Amino acid sequence: MTPVNLSEKLSLFSSHWDPKVIADYNDNDVMVVKFQGAFPFHRHADTDDFFLVLSGEMRMAYPDRDPVTVRAGEVIVVPAGQVHRPEADAEVHVLLIEPKGEANTGDSTAPAAAKDRI
Amino acid sequence: MTPVNLSEKLSLFSSHWDPKVIADYNDNDVMVVKFQGAFPFHRHADTDDFFLVLSGEMRMAYPDRDPVTVRAGEVIVVPAGQVHRPEADAEVHVLLIEPKGEANTGDSTAPAAAKDRI
């Protein structure tokens, strides 16, 4: 019940593709994350994937359709099962919501990043 | 999988305490809402209540503890069962996430606002 300032939390780390848990919503981790470059294609078999761009601009890329640009102040929800990857030419800051225990990489064979709490 | 611009969605209505669904995340409604004034005290027995202030400033008030100010760029999650009410001296814009079917008013006797989709 204490407000969490997202900019303050984002100032605490500089790593990319390394989400940090900043709040809990039911059985979900509410995270901030910095993206730069391209993540491996992956999917989450059993959950949607929620992204809100806080600053900067990213693309959500798909193997089977055109990428879409997602800018600051925009939400994109990738449905369960949809193969996707975030891409960012320059660093972008994102609010990310996923169920607790869900690997960043879904069912990909890429290693799951730890979800630290800050 | 289409990005949703929150400012554009907020420009489509002017009513207060009238959340509009702009996306779905698993079994949750992702909504934008405008607050001004004070909502009735209420609680959600079975779910947390997620708020991200997008612009402006609000207070989260509780009958049993001091209110907290929540500013633009800040998240507050009210735990399930906690009696609370949002208050705003001037209009504030908020991203709100609640499970589908949950009334704004939780188990309060106040009427539940409809959750329109825009």
Quick take:
2 copies of one chain form a homodimer. The first copy, chain A, is mostly beta strands and 118 residues long. Helices cover 4% and strands 52% of the residues of chain A.
Set out the fold topology.
The structure is a homodimer of 118-residue chains.
Chain A: E1 4-5, H1 6-10, E2 20-25, E3 28-38, E4 49-55, E5 57-62, E6 65-71, E7 74-78, E8 85-99, E9 116-117
Task: Please explain how this structure is put together.
The structure is a homodimer of 118-residue chains. Chain A has a single domain, classed as Jelly Rolls. The mean pLDDT of chain A is 92. Helices cover 4% and strands 52% of the residues of chain A. In chain A, strands 2, 3, 4, 5, 6, 7, 8 and 9 form an eight-stranded mixed β-sheet that branches. The radius of gyration of chain A is 13 Å and the shape is globular. Chain A starts with a strand and ends with a strand. Chain A contains one helix and nine strands, in the order E-H-E-E-E-E-E-E-E-E. Chain A has 118 residues and is mainly beta. Chains A and B meet through strand 1, strand 2, strand 4, strand 6 and strand 7 of A and strand 1, strand 2, strand 4, strand 6 and strand 7 of B. Strand 1 of chain A pairs antiparallel with strand 7 of chain B. Chains A, B: GO terms for molecular function: isomerase activity. Chains A, B: Keywords: Isomerase. Chains A, B: Pfam families: Cupin_2. Chains A, B: InterPro entries: Cupin_2, PKS_Associated_Protein, RmlC-like_jellyroll, RmlC_Cupin_sf. Chains A, B: It comes from Jannaschia pohangensis.
